[in-house]
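Might I ask for a little of your time on a matter of protein folding? What I wish to show you is a protein chain and, alongside it, a tokenised description of its three-dimensional fold. I should value your view on which stretches of the chain appear to form regular backbone elements. You will find the record immediately after this paragraph:
***
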Amino acid sequence: MDFPLASAQASDIRWVARTGSTNTDLVTEAASLPDFSVLITDEQVSGRGRSGRSWEAPAGSSMTASVLLRPSSVAPTQFSWLPLIAGLSLANAVSSFGGTKRAMVKWPNDVLIGDLKVAGVLSEALSDLSGVVIGTGLNVFQSREQLPVETASSLSQEGIAVPSIDAVFAEYLKHLRRNYEDFISCHGELAGTELLQAIKNSCSTIGRAVRVFLPGEKELLGEAIDIDDLGRIVVAHDGKHTAVSVGDIVHLRHN
């Protein structure tokens, strides 16, 4: 299958009809590939979300792809920004087709329309820390019956018309490349940058009451108030502020 629009945005692009996981494939092949190489598939049968959850969708219904990023001038300690940058880029791409409907990011990297999830991002660092593979799964054409849970949606279910997977994929890659270049230009140090402000502006978690499930079966209940200069979500609770780098967040209902 050809992806002429997306191909114009990628250093190297490959399509496969069916695979277990585009992330796994790209991590395995990364040593021989250049920065901003792309793998996309019609059907992923062993996809994974965050925390090892499964992620699958009917063939041809989703934008299921991975991108290899090798920011050679950036310290690996700053690679944790890349999933946030991918989430921002994906939300921007969806919003460009959405008219009055704006896609937002639930920290760290789920993309929502309203309170319904339309996409997720999963990043995996290469073993030699030379880069990161960023996997994305965007629900595009699924019907309500094809969606896995009630809290999920698709672009078609939200009334967002895209002409093809290629079109929305190209839009995502365009935003990702622009944001990635900004990330490289500041050597991954986002404090005070327009890129960090864009990440904050796109994050619907900020200002929400949240429950945070932390490693070790711990929980925080409070209000997400900021993303700090290290990409952590800052939660106000019990008279103090805690910066969270790893955890599952549940948005609680608006008052």
Notes: The two ends are 48 Å apart (CA to CA).
